[in-house]
């Protein structure tokens, strides 16, 4: 008796299963749109520690020279981090929100799409938290947000926002309420009646099918003296008959059977 479904698996294993299923359903940006987004975000990277030190040093030199303590104008930069981004989204300030797809634990950012949908903030999911981290001088980063951009980049940002709204905000209900369509597991497939089963195309052949082909191979090869092209046609016909798609397993079994016999 198979009691697998009654086993209480450890919590970390259940989290692995849930995370794997969630990653299958994630809809990340395509490569072209993601490249354009990263190029635009690269222009609004926050200053490094060295750049800040040089800026403050130049300001101190001007103050010492008697030119007045005039603060420099703060340029528009990216906002990073879950807490910072959540606060600005609640105030409807971001023009665009970017979320990494591989955040672990995923609970840190799993609420952001619903929050953005409620507040009307465009959001998107991009592959790689390390790519977002490089934009803000960190190893990794979960989210970044565009709040302000220069006038020359407003048209580029508007095009990105339009495409992202169509694929994410506009399809929010469809993405959340899409039922089915994922590949079945082996246990789910075996639970069906035999007359309803349809063999998945990516499954390897069974040993019974390999045995049938091996004996067909030996019979054609040893007991008949036919031309090689006729043998190939017979072999291909047998392959099509049993609908075998994984040639690697077949060849291994044929070699083993032929060497034994």
UniProtKB/TrEMBL annotation:
GO terms for cellular component: cytosolic large ribosomal subunit. One of its GO terms (biological process) is ribosome biogenesis. InterPro entries: eL8/uL1-like, Ribosomal_eL30-like_sf, Ribosomal_eL8-like_CS, Ribosomal_eL8/eL30/eS12/Gad45, Ribosomal_eL8/Nhp2, Ribosomal_eL8_euk. The keyword Cell membrane does not apply. SUPFAM superfamilies: L30e-like. Gene3D superfamilies: 3.30.1330.30. The keyword NAD does not apply. It holds the Pfam family Ribosomal_L7Ae. Component of the ribosome. PANTHER family: RIBOSOMAL PROTEIN L7AE FAMILY MEMBER. This is 60S ribosomal protein L7a. It comes from Bos mutus grunniens (Wild yak).
